[in-house]
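[Q] Does anyone have a clean structure-token version of this?
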Amino acid sequence: MTTAWPIDFEAFENAIHSWFSDATGLETVWRQQSAPQPEHPYGSLQVIAGPTPESPAWDERCDTDLTRPRGQEIHEELVVPAQVTVSCQVHVPMPDARNPGYNAVSYVQRALGALAKPTVTDALRAAGVAVVRHGPVQNLNEVIEDAFESRANIDVIFRVSLTEDDYVGYIAKINAESTTLGIDQEFGIL
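[A] Here you go.
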């Protein structure tokens, strides 16, 4: 009997959103949602891969509680680390040549710098998230309709834990019989 989702994805998304929006100071949205696009400049996030288990074998932890209902006395917790890749983008209107720091790459660099701060890594860790690595900053400048947009992207790989719970019963007694070994005995809880 599975009791929960393998990951609290809402907590994961909230932690990533807080990091990115706080670090850049921009209104940040999750892409591919029905909410309207914010005014420029803004940030956008999208899970582009995962959660992908890092191993096919899940760790198993068990505990027994005989006060649980029959058939559910043994609690099995299965855990595996997994990776989730998030595309983090910044969208800035046409940069002003008199202010070279006002572009999407500068905002993405702020977000990357924040990932080195203990306060940020502690907040992510509290949500069960760790930073694995990030890719290069990608300059995605483009013309949209009749206006130039400064846009930059960084893909960040995060580590989370996937957890599955199961409750199973146990065999209270067995009878072992072997003429070769000369046994005919009952084993188990009396």
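[Q] Thanks! Anything notable?
[A] The first strand starts at residue 28 and ends at 30.
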